[in-house]
UniProtKB/TrEMBL annotation:
Keywords: Signal. GO terms for biological process: ecdysis, chitin-based cuticle; neuropeptide signaling pathway. Residues 1-22 form the signal peptide. It holds the Pfam family Eclosion. This is Eclosion hormone. It comes from the Eukaryota. GO terms for molecular function: ecdysis-triggering hormone activity. InterPro entries: Eclosion (IPR006825).
């Protein structure tokens, strides 16, 4: 009985971690979209979204923090 309970607990933990990771990617992509709306052509939204997927949402862009969005900004000439 204890082994079934342990297995169920581990399964629940794995599912919870997968949901959290998926949620981080979603938050990251939504932040990219928000920055694209704010900065328009100066912001590389697709590059930002690609980074969200590549790094599994660990690098969250913050439109008010230049350091977090610097790799996605470009100069229009």
């Amino acid at each position: 009985m204890a082994s079934k309970l342990l297995l169920a607990g581990l399964l629940l933990l794995v599912v919870a971690l997968a949901v959290v990771e998926g949620n981080n990617i979603g938050v990251c992509i939504r932040n990219c979209a928000q920055c694209k709306k704010m900065f328009g052509a100066y912001f590389e939204g697709q590059l930002c979204a690609d980074a969200c997927v590549k790094f599994k949402g660990k690098l969250l862009p913050d439109c008010e923090d230049v350091a977090s969005i610097a790799p996605f900004l470009n100069k229009l000439e």
